[in-house]
Structures are given as C-alpha cells and as structure tokens.
Amino acid sequence: MKKVSFAEFGGPDVLHLIDADEPHAGPGRIRVAVRAAGVNAFDWRVREGQFQGAHPIELPSGLGLDAAGVVDEVGEGVEGVEVGDPVFGEGASTYAEFAVLSAWARMPEGLTFEEAAGYPSVMETALRVIGETGVRAGQTLLVSGASGGVGSAVLQIARDRGITVIGTAGADNQDYLRGLGALATTYGAGWAERVRRLGRVDAALDLAGSGVIRELVELTGDPQRVVSIADLGAREFGVRFSGVAGSVPDALAETVRLLSRGRLHIPVEKSYPLAEAAAAHIDSQAGHTRGRRVLIV
C-alpha cells in the first residue's frame, strides 16, 4: 500500500510517499480502506519533533490521526460494525491507503468521506479544552485563532451550550466567525483593547500559539481560566497547556449528535492528493485556515 512516511525530523520536505506493508486490525480495532485523512497541526508538530520530549516516536514513522473510510477488517471482540460500513474515527498513520482505527463511529447520512475526516481530533480537542476552562452557559469565552478546525468546532459547541464567544481571526475571516455565532475581531496591534470593547471575558483559549498568553491572562484575570493547545511556553504564565487527549468515542458521539441536529458544520477549505501531504502541511502551518484541510486517498 501507499503511505506517507518520514525518516527524520524537519520541514515538509522530509515527507515521502512510500510502499509499505498493510497494517491489520488487532483485538478491539478495525481497519479501514481510507478515503480521506484529516490534516491537523498536531501532525506537523510531530513531523518537526516538537513532542519528542513528552511523547517520543521511533523513526521512520507514519503520520495522521484522523480518517474516514470503509471498514475492511474487524478485530477480535469488536461488535456493532461490519466489513463494508462507512466510518470515521481516530487511529494511527492515517495518511495511507489502509489504517487501523482505535475509535470510530458510523458516518451520518449525507456526510462525505472528505467532510467526515475533518472531525475526530478537532472535536475531541474542542470539547476537551472547553471543559478545561470551566466556562459555562451565560459566560463569555475568548478564542484566539478561531477560524481553523478546532476554533470552528469550539464556536459551534459553545453556541449549542449557551456560551457567548469572542473570536479573533484575520480580516478575511470576520464574516465566517460571525456566521458561526461569534463576536468577531481581528488580531494584530490593539487586539486586546478591541476585545475589551466587545465585553467581559470569563475564559480564554489560545489555539494559534501566536504569543498572546500574557494578554489572555490579563483579559480573564486568572491564568487558571486560560488554556492553550499551541504555545509550549504557556506554563511560564501559569496557564495550562492541553496536550493529552480525552475520550475520542465520547467526542465522536457528540459529533454525530450535533451533526444530526444541524448544529455543526466545519467546511473543508482544501483537499490534497495523498502524494501532496507536504503541500498540505505548508498551508496548515501558514495559518489563516477557514475550517479544515484533508488528504484524499
């Protein structure tokens, strides 16, 4: 099978499409013929070796957590899913023609493989960090870097829970944020004052890692009410860096629930052939994403 792999840490040029042995579904796992794989910031951070201190990996290694595809192997002890079922979920080395998933859900009617591949990790992350801030209905959550996949999910989950959201993004994405129910403003010089004019901030999320932790603490008045998924220096300010995944099955169940109620939609900004994984990483790292990027297999 074809698989994206890298044998050294570095820039996008270390990614190569290679021939590899097919993986197989062990106990409690399923294998899918991948139709689409989600591209996450986590993927290029792994490629760069940013997590080697906390979560070392052996090289050469595959990449990718999220996939949507058709079940073609069912491991021992797995119930409720059969060969031929369309599913989406999370596993390992999903930038490939076949991948083993450790958590999955049946794809809702009307959802394409391309769309489905963009949800698993994004929704798990969004649900986790909202919970970690302690924000609740009637309060206001500030989201720095709100137009990407996780931000898009946070805005819609918060709206469903009665939480007001102030979102920062580039000038081109202001209408997009407003369409998801957020109070929107641009980042850049004077952004914190623009946020103050929009209202009180009870909790905040740093999703972009753009050096805004100090201001987020000042706006909330409490570092314990700020969570970052992108700034490894957040702890220097007493802010939690959230990097340990919660329950993916629960996140997938909530994804299906919100999709079925018409309360969730994360657009796919761009799709790339599997052989163009490096280009997908370049675009992902450049930021300014509206929704998700996926690889088509």
UniProtKB/TrEMBL annotation:
Cellular localisation: Cytoplasm
UniProt cross-references to InterPro entries, sorted A to Z: ADH-like_N (IPR013154), ER (IPR020843), GroES-like_sf (IPR011032), NAD(P)-bd_dom_sf (IPR036291), Quin_OxRdtase/zeta-crystal_CS (IPR002364), Zinc-ADH_QOR/CCCR (IPR051603)
Subunit structure: Homotetramer.
Keyword Membrane part of the UniProt annotation: no
Annotated keywords: Cytoplasm, NADP, Oxidoreductase, RNA-binding
Sequence ranges assigned to domain Enoyl reductase (ER) in this UniProt record: 10-295
Name the record gives this protein: NADP-dependent oxidoreductase
PANTHER family: QUINONE OXIDOREDUCTASE (PTHR44154)
Enzyme class label: oxidoreductase
Primary subcellular site in the record, as a coarse category: cytoplasm
Top-level lineage group: Bacteria
